[in-house]
Design brief:
The complex is a heterodimer of chains A (119) and B (182).
Chain A (H helix, E strand, L loop, with lengths): L15 H40 L4 H17 L5 H7 L3 H26 L2
Chain B lengths: L5 H9 L4 H24 L2 H18 L9 H25 L5 H10 L8 H11 L3 H12 L4 H8 L3 H21 L1
Helix pairs in contact in B: 1-2, 2-3, 2-4, 3-4, 4-8, 5-6, 6-9, 7-9
The chains are: A mainly alpha (119), B mainly alpha (182).
């Protein structure tokens, strides 16, 4: 490899190194002010959340009632799908079996009706 | 490898009142070396510019943790080379999903008039280097181009001296073979 010359480095654009230090210092300063904004925003969210939590403290009984109302609202407005609800319960198979059993009875009844009218 | 001004730069940085001035001096002292070690790896100026900026911004972020166990040069080169290798890794993954071949793109960049100075040998040498794995190419540049000691290279790359010697020796063989075919 001693027979070969050194590799000629690629040329940087003119004035690149003249302006580079200023570019970096400017970016560092703007990052600092962004960090301050993030901390301020996080602190504001924390204060607001604490305030909302304090404002909304209720006793346990009325909390249960409002929970039922809230659940009904989510189901009736189709905000929760069937899959969502099954994922939240402890015994999804049992509930599915129950639903299937109820539907089968209805289907069986329907079949009987059809049989009666078929001739 | 330690520049004489390192102590002065570090003293300025350690003092909160002169930190900005000290960091600016650090940039002035090392910007060209850092840029060129990156550009040799990524070839394209815009990419080298991004990575060089990231290198110094990261250095600024971590400068208070710098304990002087290595030189500023070694420390900056370590950040620069890690950033370059990460960049190339990500770029190759993006190319994996496209029709264009990353290596072909880099080789065509070397062939484009105006992108590099030098004669045919230079062009062939650059293209031969592009055939090496990125880490081996880095080792070659640090040894052949910058003439660093293996100890400095070991501090920069986190690789043993023995492994670096083997890698460099193998890189030289591959390049000689590649050039002899032309």
């Amino acid at each position: 490899m001693q027979k070969l010359p050194k590799i000629k480095d690629f040329r940087a654009p003119d004035d690149y190194f003249d302006t580079f230090p200023d570019n970096i210092m400017d970016k560092i300063k703007s990052q600092r002010s962004i960090n301050w904004m993030k901390y301020a925003a996080a602190a504001a969210i924390l204060v607001v959340s604490l305030g909302v939590w304090q404002f909304n403290v209720v006793d346990s009984q009325s909390e249960t009632l409002s929970m039922d109302e809230e659940v009904n609202f989510y189901i009736e407005s189709h905000y929760w799908t069937a899959e969502d609800i099954l994922a939240m319960v402890d015994n999804p198979e049992e509930i599915l079996d129950q639903i299937i059993a109820e539907e089968m009875v209805y289907e069986v009844d329907m079949m009987d009706e059809n049989d009666q009218n078929w001739y | 490898m330690k520049k004489n001004g390192d102590q002065e730069i570090l003293q300025l940085i350690q003092n909160p009142k002169t930190r900005e001035m000290g960091f600016r001096q650090l940039i002035l002292a090392y910007q060209k070396q850092v840029y060129h070690v990156i550009r040799r790896m990524v070839l394209i100026h815009e990419d080298a510019d991004d990575i060089t900026q990231n290198t110094f911004i990261k250095a600024h972020h971590h400068i208070e943790k710098f304990q002087g166990q290595s030189s500023l040069f070694t420390w900056l080169y370590r950040i620069a080379t890690n950033e370059s290798l990460s960049f190339l890794e990500k770029k190759k993954k993006r190319f994996f999903f496209s029709i264009d071949d990353h290596q072909e793109k880099m080789e065509s960049y070397v062939d484009q008039p105006g992108n590099m100075d030098g004669d045919e040998i230079q062009r062939l040498l650059q293209k031969a280097l592009l055939k090496l794995p990125d880490k081996q190419r880095l080792v070659f540049h640090l040894k052949y181009q910058e003439e660093l000691t293996y100890e400095d290279m070991s501090a920069i790359t986190g690789t043993s001296v023995g492994a670096l010697k083997a890698s460099y020796h193998h890189a030289v063989k591959k390049i000689e073979h590649s050039l002899s075919k032309e």
